[in-house]
Design brief:
25 helices; single chain; Leucine rich repeat domain-containing protein; LRR_dom_sf; 27% helix; Leucine-rich repeat, LRR (right-handed beta-alpha superhelix)
Length: 832
């Protein structure tokens, strides 16, 4: 949340120069600095804030060092205004930088050097082969040793991607300066990003006095252990002002992650632990260490959002048992006030402030606080487009203040499962504002039970990834402050990513979109939609296949349609207000990013791969031949001739193996020992044992709820009678009674069919390009939107109302990212 202005700022007259400065072209900064002292005071700090960024924006070509701009205005302030445009020789970025540091910087006045706040190397000298290995003294490491004495106000250093740079020089004190007066401890580096450098940091690096003011630290992808960082932060002896920590790809396992959580606890508000080997085993301790603030969940929005019911029960695998008690309209997300922002909290006593245990969620319209390096850098050190904040104002900035625990969390590319993500959100007290989880595993059993997976109907050579069955935890009743979400596309499409040995990419996509999707829809019939959480403003869907048999396209189009209808409903509510003091409305979903995988059509391995197990033979199987996953059996199973003819008549679709309804009761345990619909179960939580009553159904297969039929059959497998937890709204929609406990392992196992039949070649060649289908839909809906807007201008109807021409165009920002094909990359043995 943005901080309020000081009294001096509130009563001061605004300077029009400060207002127009962000809109001035970069090339005009040098001229404006020469107007007078007033203009110089406004534009010189922006020009000199980061010389590496400024020289690039002023025209330095990164390919050869030449300036593409012909602007060479000469001024009297040679040392300030022409230095960035001085070198017009054909030199590389690195050579320009070394000349700037060792030659030109010596001529600058201390007052000018004090304006330099940032050195951003991320897009500078990227193509230099020898970044720091030059045998001469004119090297990058040598410049880093001089920064503290040459640039006294330097706040940010960004060395991302410069593999040969050695950040250890930043904290090294030369022998000649050992007896000098130490710098002011109240000032120092605020942002340090050294991601993917190849040099290991020394053990005492994090305890250096030069780093004690850090607000953001990115040490992702570095070699060596993370133990020195944990030891330095333990007991809050060092890095006490650190708020944003990024430790991607550091080989962090569960034990090291727990030590990291204990070292920082709730002092951080952003943590990125993506691309590490952490599992669901850390979720409980993470919640206890980093989500220990007051709950932001409230029952005041019961009619619109429902409310949580917690009776104090739980277990070690699921956590606290929480049920959603729905109102008449909360389950359908159709309440008339669902788009209203939260009303302010008032107190009887006018001068009484909220206490610590009275925390309330944001109203849904406050500016987003981001944890990116660019955002934190601009907030703490300014830039060409932002003024530099005073040191005295830094503690009050939103990026430097400490909320009660983690609000921004990134756990992509870890071993955390979808049930782990679900438990994480249930335990978050509603304080998460941003969550990234690209492709969580979807597993019916976890932990030690995975060793016995060969005894389950879930094959060991098949892996599913996706966010299935967890849409409800993204509702405001759980995720009260969630504004930004990055997650696997199955949250919306119900189509997980299928990883299986022996099949080509196209075959895996086809199977995931047909057989697996059908069972996924049967198991978890509820998907995420925009009005499920109208407070969410940005959504990124990842790992989307480029090719579709039809259902994937329909799902994405349906979601875009619902986003357009949400926008239309918000506009309609706003237009119906007869007063300027009408209700303040949420923005709704305004940013959608679709991240696609590489197109398998462009990949030589799209239809078949070198490591396929007789993929061509599988594609040529007869209509009655299936691909079995029970045990290690791969032998084609013969079927009766009548069955083959029936499948041929039905278009040779993949069998889903739904057992026909029977009038007899299942005879296996537990139905052989019970007469009702529940069984007793011994559960553990916090070291204590408790007796539970678990719903398993009556054992009679019916025709009303196919998912319940499958669940009852799977419950007979003792290995699947685990992971006890309450029935979610998706379970209830599939036929489970509301308010009961079920075996989540048995229910999740429904998703995978017991047998898969590889598609035929003709079916694969009929798959469509998803991107082209989305583009066609956008063109069609935009045309309808333009027609409605024209009708509104002509007075036929108001835009966005139900009386005008119908349209479902969504005018938010839609981004599309497509992964590059691997067509030009080959396996090591290809060229042999």
């Amino acid at each position: 949340m943005a901080t309020l202005p000081s009294y001096q700022d509130a009563v001061s007259k605004l300077d029009w120069l400060e207002l127009v400065a962000p809109y001035v072209a970069d090339k005009d900064f040098t001229s404006l600095c020469s107007v007078n002292q007033r203009f110089h005071a406004v534009f010189a700090p922006r020009l000199w804030n980061d010389p590496l960024v400024a020289v690039r924006r002023l025209g330095l070509d990164p390919s050869d060092g030449k300036f593409v701009s012909t602007y060479t205005r000469q001024t009297k302030e040679y040392h300030l205004l022409t230095l960035l445009l001085l070198f017009r020789l054909s030199v590389k970025d690195l050579e320009w930088y070394l000349r700037f540091i060792f030659d030109r910087m010596q001529r600058l006045r201390p007052k000018t050097l004090a304006l330099i706040m940032t050195l951003d190397f991320r897009e500078f000298a990227k193509d230099t082969a020898h970044f720091s290995s030059d045998s001469s003294s004119r090297t990058i490491p040598h410049t880093l040793r001089q920064l503290s004495k040459t640039l006294p106000n330097l706040r940010c250093i960004l060395l991302d991607g410069h593999a040969e740079a050695d950040p250890a020089f930043l904290t090294t004190t030369p022998a000649s300066e050992a007896n000098m007066t130490p710098p002011d401890s109240r000032q120092g580096l605020l942002v340090l990003s050294v991601a993917h450098c190849q040099n290991q940091l020394p053990n005492g690096f994090y305890a250096s006095d030069k780093l004690q003011q850090l607000v953001l630290l990115d040490v992702s992808g570095l070699p060596g252990s993370l133990q020195p960082l944990i030891a330095a932060a333990h007991g809050r002896r060092n890095l006490r002002k650190l708020k944003v920590l990024k430790v991607r790809r550091r080989e962090i396992n569960d034990s090291l992650a727990l030590m990291l959580f204990q070292a920082f606890k709730s002092s951080l508000w952003s943590l990125d632990i993506s691309e590490n080997r952490i599992t669901d085993g850390v979720v409980g301790q993470f919640a206890a260490s980093c989500f220990n603030g007051p709950s932001l969940r409230s029952q005041s929005r019961f009619i619109t959002e429902g409310k949580l019911v917690f009776d104090g029960q739980g277990n070690d695998t699921f956590g606290p048992f929480m049920f959603i008690q729905e109102s008449d309209s909360s389950a359908t997300f159709s309440d008339a006030e669902r788009h209203f922002v939260d009303a302010p909290i008032y107190s009887v006593a006018a001068g009484r402030d909220l206490q610590e245990d009275e925390a309330v969620r944001a109203n849904g319209r406050t500016p987003l606080r981001r944890d990116s390096v660019d955002y934190v850098k601009a907030a703490t050190a300014g830039g060409m487009d932002h003024p530099v904040p005073d040191w005295s104002d830094l503690p009050y900035l939103d990026v430097c203040s400490a909320p009660a625990g983690i609000t921004h969390l990134h756990i992509s590319d870890t071993q955390i499962t979808s049930s782990g993500v679900e438990r994480l959100l249930r335990s978050s007290q509603g304080q998460l504002e941003e969550l990234s989880c690209d492709e969580p595993f979807f597993l019916p059993v976890q932990g030690s039970a995975l060793k016995q997976q060969h005894l389950l109907p879930w094959p060991k050579n098949v892996t599913l990834r996706g966010a299935l069955g967890c849409a409800h935890v993204f509702r405001p009743v759980f995720s009260s402050n969630l504004r930004v979400l990055r997650i696997h596309h199955s949250l919306v499409t119900q189509i997980p990513t299928l990883e299986i040995d022996g099949l080509s990419t196209m075959a895996r996509l086809w199977l995931a979109e047909t057989v697996v999707r059908e069972r996924s829809e049967m198991t978890f019939p509820q998907t995420f939609e925009p009005d499920m959480n109208p407070r969410l403003t940005s959504l990124t869907l990842t790992k989307i296949p480029r090719r579709s048999n039809g259902p994937l396209i329909d799902k994405l189009v349906q979601f875009l349609t619902l986003a357009g209808l949400q926008e239309r409903a918000i506009r309609k509510t706003a237009s119906q207000s007869s007063s300027r003091r009408g209700p303040v409305l949420l923005h709704g979903l305004r940013h959608l990013r679709l991240e696609f995988e590489a197109d398998p059509i462009e990949d030589p391995a799209g239809f078949s791969a070198a490591d396929d197990l007789d993929a061509e033979e599988l594609l040529n199987m007869g209509e009655g031949e299936g691909f079995s996953f029970f045990g290690d059996e791969r032998r084609p199973q013969p079927r009766p001739e009548a069955t083959r003819k029936k499948q041929a008549t039905a278009g040779d679709e993949v069998a889903t193996h739904h057992t026909q309804p029977a009038t007899v009761r299942l005879s296996a345990f537990p139905y052989s020992d019970i007469q009702g619909v529940s069984i007793p179960y011994r559960d553990t939580w916090g070291g204590s044992q408790f007796d539970r009553t678990i719903w398993v159904g009556d054992g009679i297969l019916g025709s009303n709820h196919l998912a319940v039929n499958e669940y009852m059959k799977l419950v007979t497998n003792s290995l699947l009678r685990t992971r006890v937890g309450p029935a979610t709204p998706a379970h209830v929609k599939a036929g489970v009674p509301e308010g009961v406990l079920i075996f989540h392992a048995a229910w999740d196992a429904i998703v995978m069919p017991p047998e898969l039949k590889p598609p035929r070649a003709a079916e694969l060649h009929g798959m469509r390009d998803v991107l082209e289908a989305i583009k066609a839909f956008r063109i069609e809906t935009r045309a309808a939107y333009e027609a409605a807007k024209k009708a509104a201008v002509e007075g036929v109807a108001e835009l966005g109302t139900t009386t005008g021409p119908r349209h479902c165009f969504w005018s938010g920002r839609l981004e599309v990212s497509a992964q590059q094909s691997m067509a030009h990359y080959r396996a090591p043995g290809y060229w042999r």
